[in-house]
Structures are given as structure tokens and as C-alpha cells.
Queue: 3 jobs
Job 1
Amino acid sequence: STVAVTGGSGFIASWLVKSLLQRGYNVKASVRYPNDPKKTNHLLALDGAKERLKLIKTDLLEEGSFDSLVDGCEGVFHTASPFFFDTKDPQADLLDPALKGTLNVLGSVAKTPSVKRVVLTSSEAAVSFNGTPLKEDVVVDESWWSDPDYCRKNQMWYVLSKTIAEDAAWKFVKEKAIDMVSINPAAVLGPLLQPTLNTSCANILNLISGAETFPNATYGFVNVKDVIDAHILAYETPSANGRYLMVERTAHHSEVVNILRELYPTFKLPEKCSDDKPFAPTYQVSKERAKSLGVKFTPLKESIRETVESLKEKNFFK
Ligand code: NDP
């Protein structure tokens, strides 16, 4: 059968397209820049792409732009959304494409009766940040929602973009009786298929590229291949529903640096934290729902190793 993937060129979406082709699906993937070889060559070179992959140009901000993408599809995977932190215009750069893009994709789905299920790539960002102090004994689960006011107050624009987009998506699918499942991963690591650098792998590249300090921040981490399994299982398992957090575990950047030091003793790694405050605590994230779907979790050390090996292979650093 035929499925659609939005944002096909991206880190996660490239793996998703690869995996869907491997499983025999016909795939229609949306891209912003169909004439940019850096955004398309790696997709066109995938096994099965010649016969079963079609790239279609779309615009997240344009209503109806996704009509031709989802036309004839049984499944729609919506991954396209800006993922970066540095912006002078959060409304235009992050919030509009995330929110309007999601509603435009779902608007096209609402007009397309062939679509049986939508899988939304949301984020742990839409779950964990409501002002409750995150610390060792706290277990975040899918009942949590990040708080838009808290995000605005703390200028967490990417987190806000994912929160309002997922929230609007659930309201829209309820009203239109669309079957949707969301996958909520934390920072995704693993090998890159695309030739360009994405934000979550850039975080590791920064640490191994001669940075003097590591950030005083604790992130959740997960392997890209496990995140892809979650997307496919969410689509193919009839009883899948609601949100699925995908977090192997959280780690402070000091620990990430320690793991890098174990794996690569000759690397020059940052020795100091970027500030003198106590380290941001680790916290727990429930794996219960993800495990019930049948996903496995690659240990963080292996995800870091795969990321570094891929960054080396692609010549992002010497
Ligand atoms: P990438 O930056 O590699 O992919 C982002 C995708 O969104 C690309 O296809 C990109 O298109 C598209 N996109 C971004 N901004 C726009 C825009 N303004 N208009 C149209 N398309 C746009 O990152 P990831 O693969 O990591 O992210 C994919 C999804 O996964 C996002 O929804 C992200 O929020 C989510 N996610 C990612 C996590 C991570 O750690 N990587 C963790 C949790 C969730 P183009 O290639 O043309 O730039």
C-alpha cells in the first residue's frame, strides 16, 4: 500500500523512508527543495526508491499544499517541523511552520478518505516541560503536557512549537474523527543518512569539535532506529493509540562527555561545565507504553558511538 512522509529530507524522515521502502510500501515523500541534490540524492539512492518512491514539493504554510501528497495514501507520517533553537523570529521560524504545517497536513488528510491512520512525530519536548522540577525521583509519562505559558516565559520556542502543534493536532483529529498516534522522542542519535547536519547530532559534534565547556543540561536520548520502529509499529499495530514517549534514558552532558571519553580516549573533550551551578538533575521517562508497542531501546553508549562513527564517515570532523 501507499504511505506519505512529510519532510522526507530530514534526519528522522530519511530513516523512515528507507525503512518503509524496505518493508515494501510505496512512499510519497514531501520535500521543500526537490532540486537540491543534498536534500534528495540520498533518498533517490535508497533500495526500492526507483520503483516505489515519489518526491513531491510542498509548503507547510500553504493550505491544501499536502492534498496531492496524501492523495491515495493509507498512512500519513507527519515529521516536517523546524528543529533548531537559535532564532530572532520564533513566530515565523518555528511556531508558524510547526502549528500551521500540522493543521495543513491534517486538513489534507480530512479531505482524503483513503487515509486510515496518521502518525505524528511529536517530541518529548511537548510532554516534560510544565514547570514541575525535573529530578531523579520524577517519572514523566504520556499524561504530562508541556505548558505553553511556561515555555513562553522561558523563551523555549522549539519546545513551545512542538507543544502547540501536537495539542492542535489532537483537537483537530478529535473533531474530524481522524485516527492519529503520536511518537514523542527525546534527542535522537544514531547514524545520519542525509549529508547535512541535523540539530540533535550537531549536539554531539559540538562536544567532539574542541568545545571548551559542556552545557549544564540534562537531555533524554534515544536511537533513531528505535524511533523508526516506533513509527512503523504505531502505524501497523491496529490497537496503537495516543502518545508514545521514546526515551532510552536521560543524561547530563557531563555524562555524555564521560561516555565519549571511554569510547574515544584520544579525543580532546570539554573538561568544564559552562556554569558553576549544580548540574541539572537527571529524571526518569516512562517506557511502559513504548515497550507495550514492542520497541526496544538501544543503550545510550551505542547511540553515541554510532553518531560519532557516522560524523567521522561523513567528514564532519577530522
Ligand atoms: P531535521 O532538521 O533533519 O528535519 C526537519 C524536517 O522538517 C526536514 O525535512 C525539514 O525540511 C522540515 N522543515 C523544517 N522547517 C521547515 C519549514 N519551515 N518548512 C518546511 N519544512 C521544514 O530534524 P529531525 O529529523 O530531527 O526532525 C524531524 C521531526 O522530528 C521534527 O518534527 C522534530 O521536531 C522531531 N523530533 C526530533 C528530535 C531529534 O532529536 N532529532 C526529537 C524529537 C522530535 P528540509 O530538509 O527541507 O530542511
Note: Residues 7, 9-13, 32-33, 39, 60, 79-83, 97, 121, 123, 162, 185, 187-188, 198, 200 surround NDP (CB under 6 Å).
Job 2
Amino acid sequence: TGFADDRPRKQRLLVVANRLPVSAVREGVDSYHLEISVGGLVSALLGVKEFDTRWIGWAGVNVPDEVGQKALTKALAEMRCIPVFLDEDIVNEYYNGYCNNILWPLFHYLGLPQEDRLATTRSFQTQFDAYKKANQMFADVVNQHYQEGDVVWCHDYHLMFLPRCLKEYNEKMKVGWFLHTPFPSSEIHRTLPSRSELLRSVLAADLVGFHTYDYARHFVSACTRILGIEGTPEGVEDQGRLTRVAAFPIGIDSERFIRALALPEVQTHMKELKERFAGRKVMLGVDRLDMIKGIPQKILAFEKFLEENSHWHDKVVLLQIAVPSRTDCPEYQKLTSQVHEIVGRINGRFGTLTAVPIHHLDRSLDFHALCALYAVTDVALVTSLRDGMNLVSYEFVACQASKKGVLILSEFAGAAQSLGAGAILVNPWNITEVAASIGYALDMPADEREKRHQFNFKHVTTHTSQEWAATFVSELNDTIVEAQLRTRQ
Ligand code: ADQ
């Protein structure tokens, strides 16, 4: 019961996200096995202890029958989770379709799907209808559980329609919406057929948050250029009603990582890794396998580095841990084969009978193994083509107090704005530049590593997930008060 906590609470926080932070597997007619699942939001909100938090979302499992739904609802209640039941068709059109095939690539500057124009229009409309329907289903569940005084915090691109549905139920509900991905330039957002409807729905919220100031600015520009609504210093004002728009950069529960390093289990892992890679520098990549993470580009840059630096052969290893995600989607399957092919080629080219330069794992690591890996790493490589923030870069920094390794970080990750001074920033598309940065990082003198690390460590340990959530929720409360005052004046 990782999310249960019985201390008295001042305020209830309803966190609404597409996925609950647990995965459910049906074991019998009325029994479920529940497991806490990996993900950016999960990592962040694990650290939120100040609120009586309830989660509302989809459990990732199709439960068509009433007996099953009741059993799952009961099991989840122990973890303070409330399920939204989505059937297979809705999941296919809303989640796989509109969320992951349209909004996710678009918000990461990969554009809309380039299919036959008519087919796109048809499937687009079906998917958008399913998206609205799914958002309405989330709203129904929130509304059933809402109590006066609750704060409702909606998360991410899956639920852009939700603020509007909630306000239609109850205009006094305190509704915040936070986007975990980038919000793209208004020129990109303009291409979306449902561009205006989505913007207007988000504007129904009282507070709209992004990871960076740039994303917030893009959003306000989109409102101005697409809806003709003027931005104000505080956000967007439409017919006397203000929606506050601001940047709330997320962080991690850095203490949790720092504490873990002292555990015997983690120390044992570290010892094993050090022995296994003795005499070699360790480079690390940890990503969900996704096109936005720039994994092929990263591996190609490593190949170029090896090509140009024969004295490093056998002296450096790249460990790339890629958790499979959205595995039923053909594009993600293609990406997996592409990565395997490149890794195979490079290992064939630069490997010896006893060692290969790249270890690529297609799986998730448990928390302790991950911490050990972060701690023994000399150079972390985060080369996202676009990334809302990127928590892996933060987690690496948190685990580097003794080693003071180097972070190579994409300038297109939100984290570049917070860890830019300590990291080596790169354009992930520029393979030559990334290869040169790998050489620079591996040869970096200890005093420069120390200085860069200190800067980032201080940031990561003072801008935590707890602080992020607390700030967002308290701003949300204040925003409501201000909005009401303004209307009364
Ligand atoms: P993600 O795209 O999932 O999150 P990220 O921020 O890096 O990306 O978070 C991934 C989380 O999953 C991290 O906590 C990491 O430890 C874990 N993880 C990744 N690979 C793993 C592996 N192989 N084994 C075990 N754990 C692994 C989205 C946005 C980001 C944004 C977050 C939070 O895309 O830009 O930072 O939400 O807002």
C-alpha cells in the first residue's frame, strides 16, 4: 500500500491522470494483483506528502464486467486510487490514437501523422470524439468523488478537455492543469484540426502550468494567434475571466535517491558493477524507448566517438537501458529494431572476443539497481530530441555526490534550462558535436567536474518534487481567490 498514509489531512488533493500509478493484473473473477508502475509523474508525486492525495485514472486494464469492476475498485481504494473504466475501443481511439499518435508527436515537434488525407480526416474525427468522450468519463468520476474544498489537479495532454468538463459540472471547483510535455510553438499547434477547441477547454482551468517559461509563452501565443485572446502578465484573460499561466519546473524526491545509495543492497550492486567494468569508463543512457528520446542519435554519436578515438576502444562502455513502451504501436516496434540493428553493427565493428562497447537492455530496472547504476556512471547521456523536462538527468545528478560525473544534456530537454550551467549542452541532431562532447566529458579535469556537479546537485536537491507540487497547489488556491475578487470588483 505504497500510497496509503493515515496522518490527518488539511486538504484533499484529487490528482487526475490518464494512468493510475499502479498496474492491475486480473488473477481471478474478483481478485487483482496490483503493482506500482514506473513513470515520470509517479516518481514526482511519490514525494508529495503534504496533502491527502487521491488518484483518479485508468488502471490500464479492460474490465467489462461489474463483478470485476467492483473488485478492482475495492482493491485500488486501499491505495487511495479510484479507477476510471475505459473499454477497448475507447482506449484504442482515445489513448493509442488521439493521445499517442497525434498529440504526443505533435507536441514534440514530430508533426501530425502523414497518411492519406481523407483517411486521416476520418480517423482524426473518430479519435477526437473518443478523446472527448474519455475526458467526459474522467470528469464523471471526479465529480462523483469531489467534496467541497478539494483541489483538482489534472495532468497532461491526455486530459486537455477535462478542465472544461469539470467546470461544466461545478464552476466553483478549483481546477488546475499541468502539461508534462513541451507545449510547442504556436505554429506547430496551429496545424492541429482541433486546435481551438482544445485551447478553450484548457482555458477553463484556473491555473495552467508548464515545465518552462518557454512552453508557457508558446501556449499564450497560441491563445492570442489562434483564439484572438490577449495574454496578460499573469496569463490569459477572456471576457473578464483570468486563467493564470505559469512555469512550474518539476523536480525529483532527491532524498529518496541519496538515502538509497547507503543501502547494503545498492552497495552490493555498485560493487558488482565496478568489478564488471573495472578499467573502463561507464557511460549511461536510461530512457523509455520512444522516438523523442533520441536513442539512435545517441548511439550513432557514440559510434562516431569510437571511430575518431581509437585510444578509447576497450576503455569505455555505453550502458543503454531502454524500457519498452507503447509496444503495440508499429512505429515503436520499428524503433526497437532500428536500435538493435545499430547496436549490433557497432558491437560487431568495435567489440572484441571478451568485451563489447555497448550493452543495450530492453527492460526496466528496479529502483535499487537504477540508483547503483547512476552512482557508478562517469558520463550520463541524455539526448532527447524534445522532452518536457527529463527526470533521468535529475536522478543521475542526485546519485553522483561521490563520483561527480558529467551530464551531457540535450538543449531540447526542459532540464537544459535548470541544469544547463552544470551540464554539457548539446544539439542531439548534431552527431559530430555530441561525439566531441563525449570526448570532452571523458577527459574533463576533476576540478571542472566538481564545479559543474556542485551547481547541478544544489539545484536538484533544492528544487524537489515536493516543492513543485506544493507550489502548484498553493498557487491554485490563491488563483481562485483572485479570480473571484476580480469578478466582484
Ligand atoms: P517520461 O517521458 O517518462 O516523463 P522522464 O522524465 O525521464 O521521462 O521520467 C522517466 C522516469 O522513468 C524516471 O523516473 C526514470 O527513473 C524512470 N525510468 C526510465 N527508464 C527506466 C528504466 N529503464 N528502468 C527503470 N526506470 C526507468 C514525462 C515527460 C518528461 C517529464 C516527466 C515528468 O516526457 O519530459 O520530465 O513526464 O513531468
Note: The chain has a mean pLDDT of 92.
Job 3
Amino acid sequence: HKKVEKICCIGAGYVGGPTCAVIAAKNPHIQVTIVDLNADRIAAWNSDKLPIYEPGLDEVVRSCRGRNLFFSTDVDKAIIEADLIFVSVNTPTKTKGQGAGYAADLGYVESATRHIAKVAQGDKIVVEKSTVPCRTAQSMRFILEANARPGIHFDILSNPEFLAEGTAIADLTNPDRVLIGSLNTPAGRSAAASLADVYAGWVDRQQIITMNLWSSELSKLAANALLAQRISSINALSAICEATGADVDEVSYACGLDQRIGKRFLKASVGFGGSCFQKDILNLVYLSESLHLPEVAAYWRQVVEMNEYQKKRFLNRIISCLFNTLTGKKIAILGFAFKKDTGDTRESAAITLCKYLRQERANVSIYDPEVEERQIWMDLAEPGVQDERKELEKQFTIAPSALEACKGADAVVVCTEWDEFRNSKLDYKKVYAEMNKPAFIFDGRLILDQKELEEIGFHVEMIGRPRSNFQTPKDWE
Ligand code: NAD
Ligand code: UDX
């Protein structure tokens, strides 16, 4: 099989950037060019302040940028030169038309594919890196073959990415597995072997697994659905814990010790966020419905519904603890990213919560160590509403520190599990001293030490633990 010498990656986002930077760092003999239509994004990749925050990414990029790693807006040139092309563009949920709200919008994949067909002057291996519905490779092949110059051959591979944000570099450096799907033909197998060689630059051969294209495509949706399903399962149990006096962390610990269940992805929370889980499950729901499997669709849809329920339940608890009204009260939101160690806010539970708080006419002060202010204002705005910023500013402020956000607040709400919000890192005595009383704290991430905070004087409400019974003084019982 052919040795890959030049790689092009279309899409310089959260996946394309880190993945191809690691490929370049581990394969100094391969030239890797990451291209994007978004010139600002490419400029940021070429600057000292990369467009995404990801621990360890700066070092990897710095080690090979300008050597065998390049970021460019010249898509044509990179395609023409490459032997292998990753398509790593966004595949968001469709907002209009057939399948709106469920199906993946494959417009970006299609336009990248057409671009390849239009400019390619020789044979290429085209790799689906984006998460796509089952059988997308077939559509790509149709488009490529219908538009290519005569005599040019394309092999299509599926190579889904399993990295999680916040740990992308560690996940890429040390993956549980690398998955490559190909047609079971000599050409397909040979293309898969070429891609396997790239990963073998640092991944153990036994962890590089190959299978048929459709299994590979579906495995990505399946893995995300199974992971999200665990979170919705533990969150469903957290509601039972709150009503019974059980503690969800203890239940999770007890269950997780069973090796058949395992410990990870059983942390109850205010709800999962991120650009993948909801999108990919809805995609699976749509696929199931298109295949006339309504029971299967309903089963997976419930994972997303449980997640919405969890966010709403958390809001209801805040309202009811704060004497059934939030109007004019100050709520401090600690953390806006969808998880710690990322500046990404896509589908973050904090956004949903802030939108609910807006309806309740609360005053909200938001602090996050990595999310940019501009991004927070964009996330708070309702799509299509003009000049909303002034309206938003009547209710929302963005604070420069956690302490500042909590000043004068009636309640502190932990939405993201950033380490700096832990008891050991944040001076909660000071937070308490500067809050309105009674001072409430709601932990949507189960990272706080409830007892210690209660000793300071806080009323503490934790997901998956029963409500504090402060409202019924002993002599009233
Ligand atoms: P992203 O939005 O951060 O990046 C996609 C980039 O592609 C954008 O910068 C966009 O400008 C560019 N683009 C779109 N069409 C283009 C075209 N025709 N030519 C050149 N550039 C084009 O998205 P992402 O988070 O990197 O996700 C990419 C894919 O990877 C999605 O399918 C996603 O589901 C999947 N994925 C994401 C993650 C994650 O953690 N974010 C993990 C695994 C898989
Ligand atoms: C996920 C998958 O983990 C990854 O394999 C895939 O490639 C992309 O989608 P990501 O969304 O980046 O990665 O982060 P992840 O760590 O999975 O967290 C997703 C959401 O679930 C976050 O909001 C996180 O806080 C939440 N979560 C995670 C929980 O609420 N509880 C848990 O136990 C784990």
C-alpha cells in the first residue's frame, strides 16, 4: 500500500486542529496542512493565541508549526498536494426543512467533498473525520465520482474521532482505539492500511482496528449515545436520591465498583452539554425513524429528554429554595463552559439555565475562567433578535473573577466543575461575607464540600442529595 507523504485536513476546528497537530508532531516526515474557509480562525492558528483552549495544545502546535504543520486558507493547493484528505468540518443539527431538530446538516461535508472533486488532479484517500450518519461515505463517493476528472480514483475511509474536549491532547496521544472503516475490497483495504501507518507513528498496532464502513460510521454515534445514556441514567437516579435521602455520589460509587458497570461517566450533574452528545443522539433518533424503528427512536430520544428534565429540575429547585421568586435577586453563575478545561460553550447547561433565569427576571452575574465575554453575549442572545445586547445588559453582567461574581448575590450556582471553584481553591468565607443572607449555594457538579460550607453559614443544595430542611425551624414542626 501507498505511503502517505502529504495530508490535508479540511476544517480547522476543535477536531481538525488538535488531531492533525498531533499527527504532525508524531510523524515529522509527513507534511500536514490544515485548511479552513474561516480566515480569522486560520490567522489565530498561526498566532500566539490559538483559537481554542485545550491543555497541552500550545506545546504540540509550537513543536511542529512551520516545520511540517501548516495552517492555511488556500484549500485548493492543500487538496492538490495531498495524498490523504481528512474531512473534519462541522455537522450540526439541521434547523430547517426535513428532519429539522434531529437530522445532521451535511451541507458542509458535501461542499468540502465537491471541492475535493473539483480540484483534485490525482488519486486521493478521502477520510470522513466528521461525525456523520450511517452511509454518508456512499454519498461522498457518488459526488466524488460524478464530478472528478477522468481517470482519478478516490478511496473513502471512515475514521471517527473519539477525543473529548479538555483532554483532547491526552486522548489523541493515548487513544483507547483508533477506528478505520473501509470497503472490503483490495483498494479499500489498501487505503485503510495507508491510514493505519499514519497512526502507527505513535499508536500500538493492536489498538488500530479496521472494519466495514457502515459499522465504523455507526460506532461513533453508538459510542456517544452509550456515554450520554449513562449520564442520563445517573441523573434520573439523582432525582430519586433527592426525594429519598440517598446520595447519588454514593450510589454511583457503589454501582461503579461492579466491573461490568465501571466508574466513569456516572457523575450526576446539571446535565450534559457539548457539541456532540445531543446532536449525535438526535441523529441516531432520526436514523431510527427513517428506518421505521419508532421504538428504537423513542428509547434514545429519552436520553435527551432526561437531560432537559434535569436542567429544568435544577432551576425549579433554585426557585423553590429562594422562596419561590427570583425577580430582582442576584444569582452568580460559576462556570459557563460545558465542562472544565475548555472554553467551548456549545450546548452548555449554563446557557439553558441563564435563559430560564432571564425569564424569571433574575439578575445574573457570570464568571468563567476561559470562555470569552463575546461568546457569552452571543450565547445569551436569542437567534434573530436585533439589538438585544442592551436588553441583556439590564439583567446580565460578566464578572472578572468568581469572587466578584458572588458579591451581593443571593445564590451561587456552580455550573461547570472548574478546579478553581473547589473549597480548597475559592475563599468561601469571603464569598459568604459579601453575599446577601440567607446565602444559598447550588452545586450542579458535586464538587463542593457541603459540610464545610454549611459550617461557614451557607444553605447548600447539591444535585442528587436531599434538600436542606432549613425552611422548617425545629419549633415549628
Ligand atoms: P468546528 O465547527 O469547530 O470546526 C469545523 C470547521 O470546518 C469550521 O472552522 C468551519 O469553518 C470549517 N469548514 C466548514 N466547511 C468547510 C469547507 N467546505 N471548507 C473548509 N472549511 C470548512 O467543529 P468540530 O467541533 O471540530 O467538529 C467537526 C466534526 O467532528 C463534527 O462532525 C463533529 O461532530 C465531530 N466531532 C467533534 C468532537 C468535539 O469534541 N468537538 C469530537 C468528535 C467528533
Ligand atoms: C464527547 C465524548 O466523550 C467523546 O468521546 C466524543 O468524541 C465527543 O463527545 P465531549 O463532549 O468533548 O466528548 O466531553 P465529555 O467529557 O464526554 O462530556 C460531555 C458532557 O457530559 C459534559 O457536559 C460533561 O460535563 C458531562 N458529563 C460527563 C457528566 O455530566 N457526567 C459525567 O460523568 C461525564
Note: The chain has two domains: 6-203, 305-476.
